[in-house]
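Our preliminary data section would be incomplete without showing what the modeling component actually yields. Below, a chain of 576 amino acids is followed by its predicted structure, encoded as tokens that our downstream tools consume directly.
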Amino acid sequence: MKQEFIDILQKLIAEQGKETLLDASKCKALLADYTRGEYKKESRLLLQALDAGVQKKIDATKELATCKKKQIRLLHEDYGLDEKLAADIVDTLALVLREDNAGSEAQAAFERGIKHHENKDYDKAIEEFTEAIRLDPNYAKAYANRGDVYYWKDQYDKAISDLNEAIRIDPNYVDAYVGRGGAYLMIGQYDKAISNYTEAIRIDPNYVNAYVGRGNAYYCKGQHDKAVSDYNEAIRINPNDVFTYVSRGNFYMRIGEYDQAIGDCSEAIKLNPNNALTYSSRGDAYSKKSQYDQAISDYTEAIRLNPNDALTYVSRGNIYKYIGQYDQAISDCSEAIRLNPNLAGAFSIRGGVYNKKDQVDKAIKDLNEAIRFNPNDAWTYFNRGDAYWKKGHADEAIKDLNNAIRLDPNTKSFVLNHPAMQEQERIDQERRTAQEKKNREERERREAEERERRRIEAEKEQEREKKAKRNRILLVAVIGAVIGAGIGIVLIEVDSELLSFVFAVAFAILGWFCFWTVGGAILGFIVGIVIPLFFELNRGQIAYNQIYAFISICVTAIIGAIIGLLIYRKNKEFYY
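Predicted structure:
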């Protein structure tokens, strides 16, 4: 409750006694005189609590903290009061009856936290909100505002945790749902963000910020029609809300509808010509359209209205870089860095400008800082690679240029035209050519070795074949000689035409089996008949002449060998 009303209650007790608040009818009569007809809402709520007997319980209890919680629950559940209002009433009664100033101290800490938050002194704001929560563990607004501070510190998990607690304490706390939706949006959980904004809209269908936040979430999900619908609904509810026009304008700019973005920002400027963010947003749209003079004009106006906005200095510095006004670009980026020493974009742009001015050492120093704060920006790596190339550090240059392509493949065609990459390509081509030549020479050497091995192997094989051939020829000759000699001996000793015929047949069979041809069999049969016939005709003259017999045997042996060789020559493919 307002401090003025609390002061009136304390004055009432001081002049009329504590019993005045313990008697509801007596309090009602005196309260109208002391408030002089003002503070009607506070008086009504106080009397409702008195009718519920809250003041008597607080005055009599020995466990004040426990009693306060019970009385808050009583007013909330049995009398339908909002939990925050119930807590406010109970804290006020505890303060004036028992001099329990925990509630007022919590309020004071909360208000100090708000001031620190407004001044962007986030750490002190967190300390004060934490103190407020310590004094009043059910202080939903303290949880919600501490969560909001964590949001601005990019500590989204802590923000969500505090907003969860605020919603647990007050399930209808619409600001907490919107804040939690924003935190979910920042960590990419778009469905949860939409769910929270939708719940806020259910509680308060005219809550503009909930529609804007849900529109942003729909945009992030690529559902542009739903996003536009929410932005339009927010403008319908409050056509004079600058933030909504700026939000819809930023949406149009993100989807490339720059004229519509400029239109929304211009409408926002009409509504509030002193809003720096509006000029900055319209400057962004003009920049996208390459209307650099208009962009610089809007950025300059935004800086005039808010000279502490580092991002606007960065945006204007970037335009100055594009149009070649390097000194102005360096000045703007330096001012941005002074305002925010952790701003990667300012270091990146200033480093790029130093590189344009061939001040490569300064460029590399700034670009190192930019990469330290944001290691995922492709153009920062490109600019540092270019600076390294100018400095003669080819390896570092090529490494940075490759990183630029890795981070943003769309830069590949541009980056590959850089002299460092072309030199690297030339070196790589020479290396590939040398390697191909080496591979070709190695392949030719192996092929030559293989051919030589095969040649040697073929020569060895030919030599083995020649040797085998000689052995076969010798074997055939020996076999023919032995067979011929044997037949000669037999035919000399045996006087039988039948036996001679048998030997002739046997000789024919031997010819067949040796050469597997009909010709071999026929030739063997003929030899088997001719030789015995020859000896039979001359048997009477040489039967007892041993020398002639020996000569006859030799002749038959030679004839047999010759016949065998002739047959072998005729059928030599069989032996191979």
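The two ends are 122 Å apart (CA to CA). Residues 495-503, 540-549 have pLDDT under 50 and may be disordered. Preliminary results of this kind motivate Aim 1 of the renewal.
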